[in-house]
Amino acid sequence: MEIALFGATGRTGRLVLDEARQRGWTVRALVRDAARLGGRGGNVDVATGDTRDAAAVQALVGTVGAGAGRRPADAVVCALGMQDITVPATDFSDSVKAIVAAMKRAGVRRLVAIASGGVFDAPGGGYRNQQPGFPAYLQNISAEHVRNYETLRASDLDWTLMCPLTLVEDIPRGAGRFAFEALPAGSEETGYADLAVTMCSLLGDRASFGKRVGIVSDRPAAPAQS
Questions:
Q1: Which of 175, 148, 173 is nearest to 79 (CA)?
Q2: Cystine design at 103: which of 20, 27, 108, 142 (Cβ 3.0–4.6 Å)?
Q3: Do 26 and 41 form a contact (C-beta atoms < 8 A)?
Q4: d(CA 129, CA 132)
Q5: Is the pTM of this model over 0.90?
Q6: Is the dihedral of CA 58, 61, 67, 71 positive or negative?
Q7: How many CB atoms lie within 10 A of CB 187?
């Protein structure tokens, strides 16, 4: 499989890159600073550019500007986030729109992206992140997540939107649980490692097409005191 990866230098994106390489996939990554990827090894083709730049995104997803014989990517993984959640902005959602448009032009249908559990439906209507009492400091990123979900929902792509809760680095891989169109009960945390491996695992899962995916991780039990 050959994937186009956006957000490869972020905490989730780096893990997606590593997981893809371990699976023997070829990765095309668009980053602002290639030096941040360090020693990336084989099977990784890195391009430098802005994810809001239609031409740069198109070149990564499709065949524009590529060598002879290059074909469009088999799938796209978007591990982007908002650059500064304290300031209202649309850089994240503008990037997602550019990616969706490039995929349509290139004939690439499969996309796995990231939002949060706040984009699930609230019992009384609207989204969970639009309800009274939702943390104010998450207002800007929550608005972007809603925009991105609505962009995907309006597209005709085979998309999956990952919806974790609080992302943490100290839960080891293998503790994740997920559900379609719901948040699994029992945890308020999601390990970055579980998120990345599940994104890769779901790429070929047709049951996840057009679905929001709630994902949580269970912390290992503390050792018993002697």
A1: 148
A2: 108
A3: no
A4: 8
A5: yes
A6: negative
A7: 19
